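User: I'm designing a mutation panel for NB-ARC domain-containing protein and want to avoid disrupting the core. Could you give me a predicted structure to guide residue selection? Please restate the sequence first so the numbering is unambiguous.

Assistant: Good idea. Sequence first, for numbering, then the predicted structure tokens:
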Amino acid sequence: MAEIVISIAAKISEYVVDLAIRQGQYLFRVGRFIKNLEKEKQKLLSTLDGVQERVEATDKTEQVKESVLNWINEAEKLVKEVENLETEIETNGSCFKGQCSIGKRYNLCKKIQQKIESLINLNKNGQFETISFPAPIPGSEYLYPGNIVYFKSTQNASDQILEALRDDSINLIGLYGMGGSGKTILVKAVGNKAKAMNLFDRVVLATVKERILVILDDVWAKLKLEDIGIPCDVGNQSSCKVLLTTRLRGVCTLMNCQREVPLDLLSEEEAWMFFEEHAGIGDYSPSELLKVASNVALECKGLPIAIEAVGSSLKRKPIEAWKAALYSLKHSKPMDVEDGVRDAFSCIELSYNHLRSKRDELMFLMCSLFPEDHEIFVEDLIRCGVGLGICGKVESIDMARNQLRASINKLLDSCLLMHSDKNTDHVKMHDMVRDTALWIASRSANEKILVNLDKDLNTLVENGDINDSFAVSSWNKKTNRIAAQVTAPKLEFLLLSTRMSLDMTSSSFECLKEIKVMAIISEGYRTLLSLPDSTQSLTNLQTLCLRGWDLGDISFIQNLRKLEVLDLRACRFKQVPKEIEKLSKLKLLDLSGCEVLESYNSEAIGNCEQLEEFYVSGPSFQRDDKFIFPCQTFLDDVTSPNLQRYVLELGPLQTYGHGINENSSVRALSLKEFDISKFGASKMNLLQRAEDIYLNRLRGRCKNIAPELVQAAGSMNDLTKLRLRACSEIECIIDTASAGSYFQLDALIPEELYIRKCEQLHNIFPENCELRCLRVLKIDGRGLYQPTVAISCAAVVLFSMSAAKSLEQLEELSIADCKDLRCVISDEDDNGSEDISQALSNSQSMLPNLKKLYIHYCPKLEFVLPRFCVGLEKLQEIDIFKASELKCVFGFEYQHEIQTKLPNLESLKLQNLANLVRICSGNSQPLWPSLRELRCVNCPKLNTSCINVMIRSTMKQQHLNKGDSLEEDQGKKLASRLEQVEFRGFSELRFIWCDPTNREILSLQYLQCLKVDGCAKLKSIFSAAILRSLPELTSLVIQGCNELEEIISENEELKSVCFPKLRNLTVKNCNKLKSILSVSMLGMPPQLSYLHISDAAKLVQVFRNSSEKIVFPNLREMKLNKLPCLVEICKGFELLQPMKAMKIIIDQCPNITSISKAT
């Protein structure tokens, strides 16, 4: 026992001695430890560099082992820890010189030794023989496995993508849309469909030696496809295609996408269907809940992620939760919405985070100050942005405008803003995007924004809501008095809007020391605005916008010495104060549409030499005679060379719609009853520099623009747009006889020329004139389709042959009310035939950029363009109306037989043409494979064969490209892209699409609307074969077809549902029709919503049916009128919804049985 104790004691003694030696080393060999630490760190760094180089050199189709990646992370982490320890050693350097406790020195040295051991061990583990293995090829199993719901927007985008995938010339396609709009789900569904259609062997994310489709989802910046293993050389175009999705349209441009496909938002009806699915509601739900739910769905404004998030968050919730959510969505309180909605906000916030520019971010937040669905005028954003100093210090307003427009374009490209459907220079913000912006601002320390539509400024001040706000917007339409002492030390932007007269005399702005932008907008018509005296204390104000008010005295503006932008559009006031010249920083003055009672003081405005932009015009209509119009003395007084932009309408009341508007050029001048004989060239600075000139009733015995008007002005070298109205003295635009060598004729032709009611104008362009810059020419006496009689000009010929050949840039040609016009392009030049032959032999095209061609009310015109106008490849629209002598569209013959090819023509309208015989003279047939709209109305001499040729021309190009002859078309299925078709007044027409004896099968898969009227001999509308190819037909209107016996020639049985999308069915004045169609044989139109039948003397049943029961689930309106033989709608017909939910009108149908009500 004693021996055992002695042995144990010896071992303990040995361990203690070793430990003491090691611990002694910690205290006395510190320098060696520090050197070893650095040495081992460098060894590990060397190994780490080697491993990383091998990883970077790995082939893009190889996958790096996870153990290698984990080792790299551990090594980087350890190196960081060692560097931190080295910093600690430097900080405690005195400790190793005995100037700290032994315990502290011991602990520090021990830590060094532990890191040395970790470095050694990790370095040993980093000796990898292989670092990667071949990556598996991801296939379609990674794509979306479920079924996508195809709405109109998704279907359109899907169709465009699939069309591009079939095109061998396209190898890069971009799909762009707002965050949460469904891009990822769509491209995965398209990938599945493309693989199922055998368009590709695989749908993958890496390059392989197969025919593949690569989908790149959620791309935020330009990618070099080669860097991720995708071949981009021309030789791979047909074997490899790339489909990318992005929120930024600019990414599509940067990556040179050959096809850019937008993904639009859902319609209201589509959104409701989608919302019902996610909210778990339907027709069975309580009516009160459905009413609230409908409004909630509307607030999501068609954004799929918002619909899904809001609907899911309210699923199975009580009605009170629904009402609370609706209130929150309507009143811009996103913080109060259910947590699920935050997912939508976070998705949109991601786009905001990618802006990366403070200017872009502030512009985004500024757009949220406007109400939901508000059409925001871009110029308003620019003027407010200038006042806030978003761009910092810039040389001019115009430079700031360029930067701010760039920000707006960035927001548009990022799908954070949308283009307006109504106004070209307006934008909109989606409601969910707007709520996200307010949510972001609510969490900001410096840019808090308060927007309120219910409370007026008084309430907001009393509640202290605005105390810490950067910007406040109040849109209470009933606010009529503000008496609050506004205290908001951080407020820089105040935006108020109301419909009432507004009394602010008792309020105070004295505490608004930081305010830079104030906008007070009237939604009424020049209601009274009374501002407080403290308004003149706003010495930091840089943008002031008072719009639509009766202001009275505006002399207070003379104290706003920092003012840069003064916007008084549509206001009424006494006079422009003479002291305006003291505003030394004023750069923009807008007096558009103002009623000025006493004086404009144009001389004082002219003394503002720093003024860069000036806009002035009288009111849009004359309410009384108390105000004065801006007169032509402005031409004398406002001559500052610093003036970069101006829009001036001078003279008495302008005519609606034909003065200068918001979208005009940079420098625009409108003069009414301008007498050029009273003004010298030295006083014509504004006229000389103008880009856009509108002359109404020009006087002073001026017979031409050049040389007479140009000489009076001194020069007009910047002119790009010229508009003439009721200039009765003008005989020609350019008089070459008197112009001499002083003028260069080419430079005097503007890009756009508009002529209205110039009755003496007989020679618009001289024969030898070069028109290479002319882009738009519009001539009319009253406007298109207007019923009043007027004369636009006295011209017989518009262009000589030589002048027509120079029309290289002409895009739009619109001619109306030319009672003497006989031809657009003359064929009477001395060398006309030789020039044409030479042009044809050299394959030269005439009018190569023409896109729109309109001819209205030209009674002597026999043809529109000569047939030698070959190469009209960009022509998109032809609209000809009331040309009684017109025999063909493309006229007179030469020895060459020419085929008219219009590859991009989308719309052809021929209306009220009493003598039109055919489209082209001679035997040739036109080709327009892209035609989508065809309207032929009251063209009685246009025979049946010509109509058939017009239809065939929409699909023949496909076969001719492949070398097929017309005879070879027999028996083939030919596809047409027609979407809208109307035929009216063809009494001899017996069939529309093709002769029933013909073996051709025509596919009308894109047809949406068909209207047939006044075709007395028509027996049927569709054959059974054509019926199979009508998946998109939504509206069918048939009127005045007295011989019509059946809509569908039912000579064979069809098992599929006919008209799957038909919503509107109207039949009138078809007296041989006994029924509309057989639903037992053809199937029920499931989407039918509107059914109107009248004046059908022999109609017995609307629908033939042999089954026991039939319902129309979506029927909303049914009108049956003057149907004496009608017995029933159809056998077994029942309404799915209660009659009170429908509009049913039955009149003069004496034999009809009662309609069964829904149960």
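For picking mutation sites, this is relevant: The two ends are 104 Å apart (CA to CA). DSSP finds 28 helices and 56 strands in the chain.
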